[in-house]
Specification:
Elements: E1 10-13, H1 16-21, E2 28-33, E3 42-46, E4 52-56, H2 62-79, E5 80-90, H3 95-106, E6 111-118, E7 133-140, E8 151-153, E9 163-165, E10 169-171, H4 191-201, E11 207-210, H5 217-224, E12 228-233, H6 236-257
Parallel strand pairs: 1-12, 2-5, 2-11, 6-10, 11-12
Antiparallel strand pairs: 3-4, 5-7, 6-7, 8-9
Helix pairs in contact: 2-3, 4-5, 5-6
Length: 259
């Protein structure tokens, strides 16, 4: 059952389409959606104990994938507040087509940013420029929208040692094999990326929903920074990992508050 009103962080198991239908209208400030990318293969990883983790990311055609995603984006629009917003995280395979869906569902005039996440790590290519970024499409619901410009270290010599407002290109490394935050869930996004996005686009105390939450990075970022996070995923292993991370985050914060 979807918690309402929102007063605590939670991770729910199930297809987001059904879970979204059970939610109150206009109850969410931000949706960060990181759906499967339609890579055409199984995405796999391993837990710390060596157990296999993963999900099937194969679709008969790109059009069928887009039909599946459109239905869920329409359901997401229903639960966003009038001054809410959505971030849809995709890659080169479908970003151009997903933007057209967002134009249709939210309106072309509600486009805010095409954010580039430049992650740097990964292999090189012999016959093309190496693909080293994902796309995050940012749309608002109405004329009003909460935004706090994130500050990042300046790179120019003139501003050395100072901060500047982030641009629409976010250079944040992906999670390497030795990172302590790594869970083994495939396609896990770095906490630093979600912390930046949550702080920039969700008001303090506001609600952020991740309908494909995977390892739960969005919910952890929300709790860490005074927001309420709601995660959804249809994979039991992902839900278990996300709940464990959320419980660990809550425990560490409680320990800190107790001195």
């Amino acid at each position: 059952m979807v918690p309402a009103p929102f007063d605590q962080n939670a991770v729910l198991e199930g297809d987001c389409l059904a879970l979204l239908a059970a939610m109150e209208e206009r109850s969410v400030d931000l949706i960060y959606a990181d759906p499967p990318f339609a890579t055409g293969r199984k995405r796999s990883g391993r837990s710390e104990e060596g157990d296999p983790l993963g999900y099937d990311d194969a679709w008969p055609t790109l059009n069928l994938y887009l039909d599946w995603l459109r239905e869920r984006i329409v359901a997401m629009r229903r639960v966003l507040r009038d001054d809410g917003a959505i971030l849809v995280h995709v890659d080169w395979r479908a970003s151009h087509r997903v933007r057209l869906i967002l134009d249709d569902v939210f309106g072309e005039e509600r486009f805010v940013n095409h954010i580039v996440w430049s992650y740097g790590l990964g292999g090189s290519a012999a016959d093309r420029f190496a693909r080293k970024h994902d796309d995050i499409l940012y749309y608002g619901c109405g004329d009003a929208r909460w935004f706090e410009p994130p500050m990042v270290p300046a790179t120019s010599r003139r501003m050395q040692g100072r901060l500047k407002k982030a641009t629409d290109v976010l250079a944040i490394p992906s999670i390497n094999n030795m990172a302590t935050e790594r869970t083994g869930w495939p396609d896990q996004k770095p906490l630093k990326l979600l912390e930046l996005l949550v702080n920039a686009t969700v008001p303090p105390g506001g609600v952020v929903l991740d309908p494909f939450c995977g390892s739960g990075t969005t919910v952890v970022a929300a709790r860490r920074h005074g927001r309420i996070g709601l995660g959804m995923d249809r994979h039991p292993d992902a839900v278990r990992i996300a709940r464990d991370r959320l419980a660990e985050e809550a425990g560490s914060n409680d320990a800190g508050e107790g001195g």
